Amino acid sequence: MSETLSAEPTANRRGEVVIEPREPGTATILIKGVRSRRYLTWFTILTIATTAIWGGMSILLANHVQMLEFGNWFTGNDANLNLQELTALKQQIDDGTATATAEQVRQLAILAQFDAARAQSLSIIASVGVVLTMLVQPLVGVASDRTRSRWGRRTPWILFGTVVGAVLLVGLRFAPTVAMLAVIWMLAQAVINAGLGPLNATVADRMPENRRGTASALGGFGNFFGGVLGGVSAGALFAFLGLDMYFVFAAFLAFAGVMFVLFAREDSSRALEVPKFDWNTFFVGFTIALRSRNFRWVWVARILLTFGYAVSTALSLYMLQSYIRPALGVVEATQTSAMLALAGVPFLIVAVLIAGKLSDKLQKRRSFVIFSSFLMALSMLIPIISPTLPGLFLQAIVGGIAFGTYLPVDQALFIDVLPDEKAAGRDLGVAALGSNLGQALGPILAGTVVAVTGSYLGVWVAAFVLVILAAVVIFPLKGVK
């Protein structure tokens, strides 16, 4: 890497156009050429691999929890009961078309306890890891801003998050209790996100301002497509591999992380000038971005939208088994949940690619975020009106369009409102904290609603209200189109 500092693009013999770093130890900005293409390619692949974990775990953990809780509640002769048949009986009784015997009343009482237990257990498991991540990710963001190594500032953290995260995913396969499952998943989420935050910061490090929307669009595509790929793979292969699917996700994550490090190599940060560390400055630094009015409103909006989205998706496998009419069996529900995720993919891909590039062209972010938030809220009404499988498919399609529009533009909007680009890792870590907070609160609220009301209807109502509020709080932004 050249030590000459320049703010003007330069071209080398291979036709690559770059802007050399303005400060020693920072990354070269990639305008055009092989390095730029390699970075964008492996950035997208690693984003897919990381978010495939979240999509796949939504199915694997739900099934894992269900297996463990079924063994806790249905014992002895009840161990052979068919959940689908018992749920169908419950729906018939609710509709007044059947009458339960004394034995069926007993079994239905166990079903109600089991349903509440699995919803609460899954919500706790989905939330505890996010809570630890909320503490770890901003700290890692600051640390990555200050890291000096021959591999650069971000790369050591990305490698740690992917390789160690993969090892912990393997450990999930052997968790014998809900408590052990919660502990290992908590650690896995924290470690994987310790690599994801610095990965997202590389966009601010390596991309020029007029290409950040495009790069964020690829990241947004990777986010949703990865989630879909993970969900589809888990749903399609669960009947054959069962919980051994944990191994598949672990291998993909480790592979993508190593390939990013090798083929999207970061410049050395050994010459980075790092100010003397001060704990008081360190903790106060997390509040700097939130003192910015625009950053604060975008942050609150992200919390609300991810909160609402997490509420609607936290118990999706159980909704297929207990909410829609007619209810599905375990295997059919597992496979169908993957198809639900796949239904919105074509629409999401189009939305991601159009939204990212169009927002760059028009230099508008706020209007895209508001539109996508309202559209997502509209999708939440569909299962309320039609608690059927077709209703859930329609919600997935409309929600895919909304999320595909939201993801790239919201990330670009955060970068646009950063109060200090030199501290992008720290402040984008704070931004990610908003996502994590929403993801942590969503499952808790969903599980609580089901446990208190005994129904999944309130889950969709809560999701609708939260996403509407996410759109409303974007309006106060100033100086942002």
Automatic annotation (TrEMBL):
Entry annotated with the keyword ATP-binding: no
InterPro entries (alphabetical): MFS_dom, MFS_trans_sf
Molecular function terms, GO-annotated: transmembrane transporter activity
Keyword annotations: Membrane, Transmembrane, Transmembrane helix
Gene3D superfamilies per the UniProt record, alphabetical: MFS general substrate transporter like domains
Superkingdom to which the source organism belongs: Bacteria
Membrane-topology annotation of the record: Multi-pass membrane protein
Residue span, Major facilitator superfamily (MFS) profile domain: 64-481
GO cellular component, one term: plasma membrane
Transmembrane regions listed in the UniProt entry: 39-62, 124-143, 155-172, 178-196, 217-240, 246-264, 297-318, 338-356, 368-386, 392-409, 430-451, 457-477
Subcellular location: Cell membrane
This protein's name: Transporter
